[in-house]
């Protein structure tokens, strides 16, 4: 049975992204601070179809490979899509991607196996379609923070990985603002550290 999960980096003070986000300034310019652990790994560059660079850390690289391998479809918000649309490689996701938006738009079919669908009728509709596309694999709520919060508050998330980077951002968009604190019982399932982050996996059980 498919699981619904997200996998996100945050700063020590809880920020998921910076301010003044745009297609020219994805994630508010803080990607290098939050995702440095990932950018150092060959596994990451392989999955985004960029040759060369990176290290081969067994634990970090394995986690990156496993996250891509388990995912059968993606759900994201319009802002994240707009920030990435101009720069993402063709067929980056290698799966169906459901974009939550008020904009009516025909599917964007890419070469390979990536198609972006634009969903106008809410998260439940996106999840139903993403579950069908996933064919038994898991559904990743890709972001941004508001989209993740909507799925958390609806009681629809089964588990998540947080990668805590040893930096303070001071301002920006927090991942866990506006969360219904009484929605789940939460258990730590796994913890391991690497040079540039601490990985924590949580399992959620809806009350």
From TrEMBL:
PANTHER family, per the entry: BIFUNCTIONAL DEAMINASE-REDUCTASE DOMAIN PROTEIN, DIHYDROFOLATE REDUCTASE FAMILY PROTEIN (AFU_ORTHOLOGUE AFUA_8G06820)
Listed name of the protein: Dihydrofolate reductase
Residues of the Bacterial bifunctional deaminase-reductase C-terminal domain: 3-187
SUPFAM superfamilies reported for this sequence: Dihydrofolate reductase-like
Gene3D superfamilies named in the record: Dihydrofolate Reductase, subunit A
GO molecular function, one term: 5-amino-6-(5-phosphoribosylamino)uracil reductase activity
Species: Maribellus comscasis
GO biological process: riboflavin biosynthetic process
């Amino acid at each position: 049975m498919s699981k619904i999960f997200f996998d996100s980096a945050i700063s020590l003070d809880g920020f998921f992204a910076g301010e003044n986000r745009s297609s020219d300034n994805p994630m508010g310019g803080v990607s290098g601070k939050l995702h440095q652990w990932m950018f150092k790994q060959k596994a990451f560059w392989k999955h985004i179809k960029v040759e060369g660079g990176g290290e081969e850390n067994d634990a970090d690289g394995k986690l990156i490979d496993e996250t891509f391998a388990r995912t059968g479809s993606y759900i994201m918000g319009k802002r994240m899509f707009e920030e990435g649309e101009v720069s993402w490689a063709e067929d980056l996701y290698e799966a169906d991607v459901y974009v939550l938006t008020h904009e009516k738009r025909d599917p964007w079919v890419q070469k390979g196996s990536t198609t972006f669908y634009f969903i106008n009728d809410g998260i439940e509709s996106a999840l139903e379609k993403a579950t069908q596309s996933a064919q038994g694999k898991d559904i990743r709520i890709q972001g941004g923070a508001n989209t993740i919060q909507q799925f958390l508050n609806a009681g629809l998330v089964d588990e998540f990985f947080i990668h805590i980077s040893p930096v303070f951002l001071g301002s920006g968009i927090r991942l866990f603002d506006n969360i219904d604190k009484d929605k789940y019982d939460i258990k730590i399932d796994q913890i391991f550290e690497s040079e540039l982050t601490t990985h924590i996996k949580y399992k959620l059980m809806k009350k």
